Amino acid sequence: MKLGPHWLREHRFWRPVADRDVDDELAFHLAMRAELLEGTGLDPQTARDAALQRFGDLAEVREQCITMSHERERRMKRLETWSAIQQHVRFAFRRLAAAPGFAIAVLLMLALGIGATTAVFCVVDGILLRPLPFEQPGRLVDLTHSIAISGRSTVDQSDGTFLLYQRHATASFASMGAWRTRGVNLGVSGADGIPERVAAAGVSAGFFPTLRVAPERGRVFRPDDDRPGAPPVIILSSALWQRKFGGDPAIIGRRFVVDGAEREVVGVMPEDFRYPEPNTSVWYPLALDAARANPASFNYHVVARLRPGVDRTAAMAELDHYLPRLLDEFPADIPRDMWEQAHVRPVVTPLRDAVVGDVGHLLWILLGAVGLLLFIACANVASLFLVRAEGARRDLAIRMASARAGTPWWRSTSPRRSSSPSPVARSACCSRCSASMRCVSLPPAPTCRGSPRWESTRACCCSPSA
Fold first, then answer.
1. Residue 126 to residues 113, 137, 333, 349, 416: CA-CA distances in angstroms?
2. Helix, strand, coil shares of the chain as percentages rounded to 5?
C-alpha cells in the first residue's frame, strides 16, 4: 500500500484549496493508522474500521481543520498585504524625498482641485440633491401669482387670495398654510429684564399639518387658535428652548410677553425644523380676519400639499378657476377694471425650487467649473508623472529584466507605481482642510426666501466629522 496523500502543491498554479488539503491530510493519517493496525494481523477492512473508530467524529474534525486553515490563510494574506503596503510606502517616500519640487507641485495641484470640488459638491448635495426634510416633499408646492404691472412680474399671496383658495380649492390641495416673518421682542411674563429680539413667523393653522411636522413637546396650532379673538399662544423653537430655558420640561403652559402681549406656550418644535427661515425662534397664529381681508396686499407666503395623483398643471387650473371670485367674496377699494388689467394668474412651483431660488443654476455652473479645474489638475499631474517616468527608463528596464529573471512582474514594477498614490494621499488630507475653509467662508443664507437648507448645509460641510 502506498502511504501518504497525493499532494501536488508544488505543481499547482493557484493557491491550494483548504478543503482539498484537509481531506488529503485526514486520508493520510487514516491510511497510516490502518497500515499500523494491519501489521498487528488485522485484515484491511477491519483495520480501516478500527482506525476510523479510534480517530473519532471525522466530520467534526474536518470542519475544525477547515476553519483553522481558512483563518490561517486570511491571516497570511493580511500579513502579505500589509508588508507589501509598507514596502511601497517606504519606497514612494524615498523617491519623493529625492525630488521635493516634484512632490510639492503634485501636492498643491491635487489639493487645489480636490478641495474645491469637495467644497462645492458638499453644498450642491445639501441644497440641490437631497430632498427637503419633510414627509413626501415632492407634493409640497409654493403658491404665488404672476402679474403684469410695470416693474413686477411675480407677487406672493394676499390674505384674501389665501382664504379664497383655502375655502374652495380642495379638489387639488389636501391642505395649505400661510406664513410671514418679522422680528418680535420676547420676554418672560412677570420677570424683570430686557426682552430679547428674536425672529418670529406668523403662520396659519394649516401650516404645520401641511408640512406634516410633529412638535417635540406639546402641540401645534389648532383651528380655534387661528381666529380673531382666540387666546394668544406661541410655539418655541428647540434652539430657543435649550438656550434660554435650559430645556425645561415644564415649558408648556408658561406665559411670555411678545411685543407687549402675553402669550401661552403650547409647543416646542424639533431641533431640525428650520422653516420658514433658519433662525426662526417663535411661531404664532396669524388669525386672519375674512371681514378685513385685503385682496391686493400681496405680503403672505403660502405652502400647500397636493393631493395624490394631482399634478401642478391641474392645481393651477383649479386656482385659476376660482381667482375671478376674489373681488366678489372679498370686496376691495381697487376698481375691477384695474384688477383685470393686472392679469393676475396663479403660479404653482415645487417647494424645493422656491426654497433654492436662483441659487441652483449658479451652483450647477460652479460645480461644472470646479470639475473642470479638477480635470486640469489631474491632467497636469499625469503629465508630470509621464515626464518623470521618461527620465527613469533605465531603472524601469532593470526592473523588467529582473521580472524576466523570475521576480513577479507586479513586485518588480509596483514600486515605480507606488510613488503615485503617496502625493495623492497627502493631497487628500490637504484638500479636506481646503474644503473645510471654503465651506467656512461661504456667505450667509441667500436672499431667496425660505432657505434653511443653506445654513444646515454649511454646518454639515464644516463639521469635523463631515
1. 20, 15, 46, 20, 40
2. 55, 15, 30
| Closest residue by Cα to residue 161 from 319, 276, 315 | 319
In this predicted structure, what is the pLDDT of residue 8? 41
Question: pLDDT (tens digit, 9 = 90+) per residue, 436-462?
Answer: 444 444 444 443 444 444 454 444 444
Q: Tell me: the pLDDT tens digits for 16-61?
A: 556 777 777 778 878 887 888 777 878 888 887 787 777 777 777 7
- Region 148-153: mean pLDDT is 72
pLDDT at site 285: 95
Full-model pTM: 0.63
- Residue 290: all three cell numbers together: 375674512
**pLDDT tops 80 at residue 390:** no
Measure the CA–CA gap between 184 and 196, rounded to whole angstroms.
8
Check residue 242 and give its pLDDT. 92
**In sequence order, what are the residues at sequence separation of 6 or more whose Cβ sits closer than 8 angstroms to the Cβ of residue 209?**
175, 177, 220
Cis, peptide link before residue 444, omega less than 30° from 0: no
For the record, the C-alpha cell of 365 comes out as 455652473
Q: Quickly count: other Cβ atoms within 10 Å of residue 9's Cβ.
A: 10
In the prediction, which pLDDT does 448 show? 43
Q: What is the number of other CB atoms lying within 10 angstroms of the CB of residue 3? A: 8
Residues 377 and 33: their CA atoms lie apart, in Å, by: 69
> Which helix (DSSP H) or strand (DSSP E) does residue 432 occupy?
helix 421-440
- Between residues 119 and 152, which one has the greater pLDDT? 119
| Beta-strand pair 261-268/217-218 | antiparallel
Chain segment 324-381, per-residue pLDDT in tens: 899 888 887 778 888 888 888 999 999 988 888 778 788 888 889 999 989 998 998 8
Dist CA 116 CA 435 (whole Å): 6
Q: Say if CB 199 and CB 281 are below 8 A apart.
A: yes
CB 96 within 8 A of CB 102: yes
* Beta-ladder partners of 188: 256
**How far apart are the C-alpha atoms of 296 and 336, rounded to whole Å?**
11
Core vs surface per residue 278-290: b (16+ CB within 10 A) or e: bebbbbbbbbbee
Taking CB atoms within 8 Å and a gap of at least 24, the contacts of 319-327 are: 319/143, 319/165, 319/169, 319/172, 319/346, 319/348, 320/345, 320/346, 322/164, 322/165, 322/168, 322/169, 323/161, 323/164, 325/164, 325/168, 326/160, 326/161, 326/164, 326/295, 327/295
Amino acid at 186: L
At position 436, the amino acid (one-letter code) is: S
